[in-house]
Batch of 2 targets.
Target 1
Amino acid sequence: MAKTGGIAADRLKQIVARIERLEEDKKAVADDIKEVYAEAKGAGFDTKILRQVIRLRKLDGAEYQEQEALLELYLQAIGLTHQNAA
Amino acid sequence: MAKTGGIAADRLKQIVARIERLEEDKKAVADDIKEVYAEAKGAGFDTKILRQVIRLRKLDGAEYQEQEALLELYLQAIGLTHQNAA
Amino acid sequence: MAKTGGIAADRLKQIVARIERLEEDKKAVADDIKEVYAEAKGAGFDTKILRQVIRLRKLDGAEYQEQEALLELYLQAIGLTHQNAA
Amino acid sequence: MAKTGGIAADRLKQIVARIERLEEDKKAVADDIKEVYAEAKGAGFDTKILRQVIRLRKLDGAEYQEQEALLELYLQAIGLTHQNAA
DNA sequence: AACGTTGAAATAGTTC
DNA sequence: GAACTATTTCAACGTT
């Protein structure tokens, strides 16, 4: 039985291998992204601004949802909809 | 001269002591915050909502600035104000 | 009813104010800690190692040794001992 | 002039689209990794130690030993050796 | 009391 | 090499 000091060694090896494989994939994608930025830079675009655009576009949807949630919460807080214990 | 293997031991000890002192302070404040939440809960408020309110109030100012930056960036991107190399 | 709501709302505002005040304090202390690290760096100390020192001092020995042992076990299981990690 | 801007704007849109596509891929892989860790945890492995194993395998021995030596030095300087951290 | 979720801290990487 | 940003790791909290 493939145990080393109570550890299922084979299982552990599999897990480690899978993670390392996936991390390689991830690195490959990250490198692709870098390439695109480099290419963009070569085409005369400002990569710093480009990164900000990407970041803000990501935030956009999230922010909208946050605002919605905020409104909801304020309504509850002011109207004491839920936590009215007084 | 107070050196151990090339390290200024006294200086290091001082630094460690200062950091540990400050971390105690920080923990004390964190505990105070917990207390307030516990008290609020005792008064019938929903701590989850309370935490969200705090978080969103914090975000508020930041988000406004992000939006401003986004507008600025889009203006640059569409008008190609800076990176117009074509 | 509006009265009750009003009282609870006042209470809520107080709570929020207290928490936000405390979080400012906490941030101030956190900033102080950062400053000490920056100062230490300026004096030639390696901040990463310094953080490790602080962390080790916080851990009690039992916990530390437990983790070390478990790590060793895992490394052995995958056929990579701590010593020959090179 | 409007034309040039238009062409560059199209190019910019393409770039942004490509990056966002790649970032989705990256996120998907990152999620896969998380899943593996979750699965490992379900199988009884300590994920924190597991992460350490992965990290150690990535490090080359020289770097690792350097850091260990420096840590030892600091601990000695403040009168706390690695062994008697208890 | 373990689990997942979320927020803070720390580390690594990039740019200037 | 110093500052800023992004990613990763760690710890706290609520939940079941």
Target 2
Amino acid sequence: MAWKRTHTCGDLNIEHEGEEVVLNGWVDTRRDLGGVIFIDLRDRYGITQIVFREEDDELHSRAEELRREYVVGVKGVVEARSDENVNPDLQTGEIDINVSELLVYSEAETPPFEIKDDIGTSEDLRMKYRYLDLRRRALTDNLMLRSRSYQSIRNYFHDLDFAEVETPVLMRSTPEGARDYLVPSRVNPGKFFALPQSPQTYKQTLMASGFDRYFQIVKCFRDEDLRADRQPEFTQIDVEMSFIDEEDVFEMTEGLMKQLFEEVSDREVSVPFDRMTYQEALTTYGTDKPDTRFDLKFKNFSDLVADSEFRIFSQTVEEGGAVIGFNLPGEGDMGRGELDRLTERVQEETGAGGLIYIKVNEDEIKCSVGKFLTEETIRQMIDQAGAENGDLVLILAGPTPTVYEQLGTLRLMMGNDYDLIDRDQDHFLWVTDFPLLEWDDDAGRYVSLHHPFTAPQTRDLDKLENKPQEVLSRAYDLVLNGKEIGGGSIRIHQADLQEKMFDVMDIDRGEARDKFGFLMEAFRYGTPPHGGIALGLDRIIMLLAGADSLRDVIAFPKNKSAQSLMDNAPSYVEKDQLDELHIDLKDWVEKQKKEELAESQQKSNS
RNA sequence: GGUCCGGUAGUUCAGCUGGUUAGAACGCCUGCCUGUCACGCAGGAGGUCGCGAGUUCGAAUCUCGUCCGGAUCGCCA
């Protein structure tokens, strides 16, 4: 039977002096000074120091038995600490609880790692004992930030009259995009559901139904390899609106971000956000998600060096590639050894053939390929780069768009290495005017860059058949500090245009109709123009929390191999279960399953 | 799937070109200590050096294989 607590461990302060209180919590640290024992009592709200004195022999000796992570309840009186004993690092640091009664709810074994913030414990151990990991202040705070975020987001949309609608988790598998997670259907032998990569088709259908403003905080699933910023199941803020254009989506999203950031953190968001076309992002920053918190913008030297003696330059330009670079201010004194190491790193990490540099110093201008270039050309390049005395110009040459991406990687490397990133700032950025399609060598056809329901820009409609690679789309991405946190588009809402898109992508009409037929049909019964966006909630929380990994803002995340180490999911299942689902395992899988089961049996026996 | 890095005490790590009994810090246990808050002091326990083979008089250390983990690329409309 638990004592009813009167306060949490984060509540009490000098105002409560003299009050009789009851606290419940975990034993955090214990400082036994002999005649007096101090214990930090912890719950998710905070820490309160409780004191056991020698006067009460029985209580004092029971307090000596307390160990880390025991769960206890205490009754006692709030005492003010004397001035020299106040702990300014603690919310409750002005007071102690002088304990008069102690109740031990639960003892605890010594945990496999310490419950404190700056632990270097490997992630797989933390994952196995996730319930202990989550007791750590940093993770608790991240989840509480997440909890407040849900509230803020829901309030925003409800205030604007958006309808919150749940869409199915079991849906049909669709072509295009990431690999689906499949769920076998017992009652439909041989047939499978897929878990949604996003509720895309449902939310468009809802537009056809007249729910002109929809949102949902929804789990999505993609069966692809993981990264620190990628989980197989993740949460999206999914939004769709009717009778709108890009500007409405931008305005709605900017308002959401502003409210969210300012309600759950102390970060200010200024709206409207900056905008940049995909073309500009690629040619100026070498990526479709530029980190605009620092400069190092690309300059193009192709025209200057097209006729140069240096074959790598002239040949690159002749073959349609580019010679590009950026100015790194103040690093003109970089030594030969350091530049060699940098070159090696660039080759390894970006795959670029080599790195060319110009050191711009008052007494000497030194170019790594100086003997092949005229002094005038070098001078022009320095001007083009905007370099001044003391600066270093870094240059790559190669085929486009690869060379842009390589220089983009180098730009990020330099931004990090030379601490050029202003981490107190948040830079939101809309990236617009994406190409509609890209050529897929493996598939031998055009595929959507975004997804097949994205509307082409009206002015490009006539190019759709003859020059599909030149058609721009009405898609947009939202980028925050160099991380993509959302993307969306204005959709196609006309059946004939949608069919034409499938034609261009060489998805034959039968297949398209079979897989997306319901949506195409919906378009025939009166569908409004519509569009929307999906925002990556986990990533947004990660940035808000200042966490390095998505795993630090998800309560029970998967590891890199898409496993949950705490409950050992996924797992083998009984043969009976498979039989019901009409599924046979491949021979080699069956063999592996037997071996692993035998092994774990042996382990549990010994 | 490719490449690179790693696996030593409960945890994080050190342990060089092979050579006595494999160390440190934190944690844990015991004792002392009435104002600590990373308490302090004294003492103690704790190891199949991931696993298997090889080279050697001798392997944590070198070689090969294997398993596991991390980073990165492919992949992620």
